[in-house]
Design a protein that fits this description.
It comes from Dictyobacter arantiisoli. This is Bacterial transcriptional activator domain-containing protein. InterPro entries: DUF6483. There is one protein chain. This protein is mainly alpha-helical and 218 residues long. It folds into two domains: 1-137, no CATH class; 139-218, no CATH class. It has twelve helices and no strands. It has helices at 4-26, 30-45, 49-54, 57-63, 72-91, 95-115, 124-134, 142-154, 158-171, 175-189, 193-198, 203-213. Helix 1 packs antiparallel against helix 2 (30-45), helix 6 packs antiparallel against helix 7 and helix 6 crosses helix 8. The longest helix has 23 residues, at 4-26. It is elongated.
């Protein structure tokens, strides 16, 4: 688990560097912004934007986990800078490139929040929400939807997790996700009423959800 003070210090350092990037972008110096982002990526991660964006999201995550343990610092730098790169491509009217940067950024951030059990008062959750909102008009890749399902449960947002679960199963009725759905409801059965209500859920909805899962059983 990342030390809370360490996250705050790292966030402050990233925020300082990003303030320069954001300033360039707000002055519509978009090409200079992209160059500045690339320089920061190389400085703090040893990878260029071109290389990072040439990798699939899964391959990038593997590259950041060389011995099976996520390099949280590099992951956070990349997620933060890809978000800014996406914003810059939005400025340029290039929604295709901005979409892929946002998706990759969100994918890494959700994995970081899961693996490192980041404290719930961390501003990183706000960053994740910003990215989720930016991508709300798009259909997300299936592997990102899986991470969102896990993320919403982690936050205690059970109704949102259920929505992701059934939307996923409607499009990809995979046995693995079906098993994850059963495990999700079993965990919810162990919750007290107050916990469920805080997650906009109820024990009755748990039972109804389990029954609905039967639609996807061969």
């Amino acid at each position: 688990m990342i030390n809370k003070d360490y996250i705050l210090r790292l966030a402050e350092q990233i925020g300082y560097e990003l303030s320069i990037v954001i300033g360039l972008r707000k002055r519509n110096q978009n090409e200079d912004t992209l160059i500045a982002i690339d320089n920061l990526l190389l400085k703090f991660t040893g990878m260029t934007s071109r290389f990072i964006n040439s990798l699939s999201d899964e391959m990038l995550l593997q590259a950041l986990s060389p011995i099976g343990k996520l390099n949280a610092e590099a992951c956070l730098w990349i997620a933060s800078l890809l978000k800014e790169e996406g914003e810059t491509y939005d400025n340029l009217g290039n929604s295709n490139d901005s979409y892929y940067r946002y998706v990759k950024s969100l994918y890494l951030l959700l994995e970081l929040l899961h693996q490192e059990h980041v404290a719930f008062d961390s501003p990183l959750y706000g960053d994740a929400k910003v990215l989720i909102d930016k991508l709300s008009a798009y259909e997300l890749p299936s592997y990102v939807q899986k991470k969102l399902f896990r993320y919403y449960e982690q936050l205690g947002m059970y109704a949102q997790a259920e929505n992701i679960l059934f939307d996923y199963l409607e499009h990809y009725p995979e046995p693995q996700m079906l098993e994850s759905g059963h495990a999700f409801y079993q965990r919810l059965q162990a919750k007290n009423r107050a916990d469920l209500e805080n997650g906009d859920f109820s024990l009755q909805e748990v039972q109804e959800g389990l029954a609905q899962l039967q639609r996807f059983v061969d």
